[in-house]
Amino acid sequence: MKLDWKSGLGIAFSAVLLWWTLKGVNFSEVWSVLRTSNVLLFALSPIVGTCIFPLRARRWRTILEPVSGRIAFGPLWRSTAIGMMMNNVFPFRAGEFARAFSITREVPRVAITTALGSLAVDRIFDAIVIFAMMFAAMLDPRFPSGVTLAGRTVPELAQFGVAGMIALLILCYAMVMQAPRVLSLVRWVAHRVLPRFEDVVVGFVEKAMGGLAVLRDGRRFLAVLAWAVAHWVVNALAMHIGFMAVGMDVPISAAFFLQGIVALAVAVPSSPGFFGVFELSSVLGLAVYGVSDKLAVSWALAYHLLSFIPITIIGAVYFARLGLSVGTLSGKST
């Protein structure tokens, strides 16, 4: 987990975005909005938002079960909290590896490659649900018409994201349903590019594909999908409670739309916790609904900070209790 030039570039990128977002903002006006906001609703917003992490842990159990058997909720929850904490304090989604490593530490029968493969499936389901909800928000009669972002209409951007999500899902299905052919192709490539590590590469891919086993079972697929829907409905609800706290007059569908915009934005390498990226994407997304920069920035700064704190503290506590260290994770990831 060293701070190399790529990490520094991500942090610098976030700093520029944050500066760009805040450069024309009058902070006395932002403070006025926050000072007069509904404190109880703002306190409730991150509490509801933190509930998405136990939901993610429960979804993860269903994904892992076909290859690792039934796993107790505790290790899954602790590993998820640790992963989210690491994403908040280290760049380039370091928490994904930390989450996978943590579960192998508590449940040794789960191979690290299987854990990483399962997290890829986890993110694919996120994409399916987030973009489906984003597209559904555009069908709301209250969604503004004629809106463009980066020169493209919002539906065009959503269609691009959905197409990418479908392509990923097809690729995963191909890896599951045509596993022997995929492994033969991997072996052929490895033999020509890395002949000394041919068996290692093929073994890694074979174990990683184990995490995709959930796609073979229709009922399990639907169960994972249902947990993902619950996750992102709760996340949107937390956002909307924050909207109400600052007096923002937008429909709840705006939260489903905004979380899709934010998801697209945070895919870009940036600083730990996605500071700058979250704020700018929130301002741009809420501007679609005619929300002023003052109100959007006020909500984004407060919501981001308040939602950042609980899971970071919880994850740090579990990280210490499991006897993990940044050095250990660095050694395992290299």
From TrEMBL:
It is a multi-pass membrane protein. Keywords: Cell membrane, Membrane, Transmembrane, Transmembrane helix. The keyword rRNA processing does not apply. It is found in: Cell membrane. Its main location: membrane. GO terms for cellular component: plasma membrane. Pfam families: LPG_synthase_TM (PF03706). The chain crosses the membrane at residues 34-55, 110-137, 157-176, 221-243, 250-268, 299-320. Signal peptide: none annotated. This is Flippase-like domain-containing protein.
